[in-house]
Amino acid sequence: MDDKNINNMLSKVTQKIIERLHQRQQTTLHIAQSQLIMVTDSSWLIYGHMQLIVSTVDFLSKLCLADISDPAVNAFYQALSFAVEVTLVTDINKLEQLPYNLLSQLPVKFKDHAGKILFFFTDPLLSYHKCCTLQGDYLLITNDTIITPLAMDVLKQNNITIIRLSNR
Fold first, then answer.
1. pLDDT of res. 168
2. 143: three-class secondary structure by DSSP
3. Residue 41 pLDDT more than 90?
4. Which domain holds residue 103?
5. pTM, to two decimals
6. Does residue 28 contact residue 50 with C-beta atoms inside 8 Å?
7. What is the C-alpha separation between 105 and 83, in angstroms, rounded?
């Protein structure tokens, strides 16, 4: 084979890889926590996103502590290792039962069952400037977070609900 043929083959292989990566980014696995242990590693090559419906506080706690002795938690971290973008779908009251600092460290997005976005704000001060870039329906902050009056006005105008969580 000459260099021209090799370059042509490499170009085709590269294009195919790019095409499959684009297809992967368009697919989402919707799955319940109880079904997560049935997912194989090869699934993470197909799906670029996962919406995981979390049904127990215990599971959330194990996620926060990276307790991979639990098969479902292990499967969750396997998905992350394959660069799958994970969204946890859960009730706000489950989040209120766990320490803020652990939840906010998880490399995931959060939504409630109605599809509303839950956004963790980790800075100690929420100012107008920072408030203008927020996206979400619920803003989860610690009890110690200070919100300036102007930021509070912006949150109200944008119908963003503030939920204060304990950092215990």
1. 66
2. coil
3. no
4. 92-168
5. 0.84
6. yes
7. 17
